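Morning - FE2/S2 (inorganic) cluster inputs below, output right after.
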Amino acid sequence: MTLAGSAGGAAASDRTLAPLGRRLLPVVARREHGAYVVLSVADRDGPAPDPGQFAMLAAAERWGGGADERPFLPRAFSYARHHDDGTLDFLLEDVGPGTERLAELRPGDGIWLLGPLGRGFRPPRSGRRPILVGGGVGIAPLAILRDRLGARAAVLLGFRDAAHAEGAALIEGASVATDDGSRGHHGLVTELLTAGLAGAQMVTSPGGPSLRGPQGETLHPEIYACGPPPMLEAVRALCAEHGLPAQLALESGMACGYGACFGCVVPTRAGYVRLCVDGPVLEAASLEQVA
Ligand SMILES: Cc1cc2nc3c(=O)[nH]c(=O)nc-3n(C[C@H](O)[C@H](O)[C@H](O)COP(=O)(O)OP(=O)(O)OC[C@H]3O[C@@H](n4cnc5c(N)ncnc54)[C@H](O)[C@@H]3O)c2cc1C
Ligand code: FES
């Protein structure tokens, strides 16, 4: 197995580094958005995370140690929002014992946090218009990214059904698609992206490939995506077809979050990388495919 240094050519200095050791922080708010829970944690002295970075979280109480307390290892979560007073928001979907335990925390409860970890999204290349594409709980890192990029970033979000689509409240002005048609476009979020790119013509300019819109205007999209693997693979293939740059926030099982266990490796064209230190955001062009 070869281990590539990074799948995008960036250095360690392009990320906000976590202070050594995990910190015990108070939960200050808990809100429900349909199928999701937003947990707010006060981290007044912690560093501001970059969009796309993540933290390893564990509840301070009842987190392992017996047959009924399976979680034990911390779980990885994207930063969904960073407020001026240092409050951090995390978006949770209850899919198993760890997320279930975190989702039941209430204001005043303690949470162990190690972060910010990993390499997040890079700013758009010069002159490029960001298009953010999210699926399900994968919308989390796009909320903080949109805060940073502002209204020039178009946002397309896809969900299973109306209950999950309530998560779209996190990002103002997003176009929504649902699998069952209960809200917004009936179909996949990648269909919204395809429709946006359809009718546009590829032109080659000195700044690289770009698209010309129906009115002859030049479009220079750069795609930022996070969601389930089939969605990310569809985005990767579409961008490869149109010659568009794309940054994909991937997931893999993470035991440590800081490069020690090698449990999170994913294959790239340059060899295997540890997603927790070389990602979780990778350039789409560095991947053969998203598995
Ligand atoms: C960088 C990163 C950022 C993440 N951000 C978020 C977030 O913002 N919000 C959120 O709700 N979740 C996020 N996740 C996923 C979250 O870490 C897992 O859902 C969680 O670890 C599941 O733990 P559990 O004990 O609840 O369930 P488990 O019993 O561990 O797993 C339940 C189900 O989820 C699958 N699963 C577990 N972990 C992963 C994973 N990492 N990738 C894909 N499938 C998995 C299992 O195969 C199983 O089917 C992120 C993961 C990574 C790696
Ligand atoms: S999670 Fe341990 S090396 Fe990445």
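Note: The CA atoms of residues 202 and 211 lie 5 Å apart.

O.
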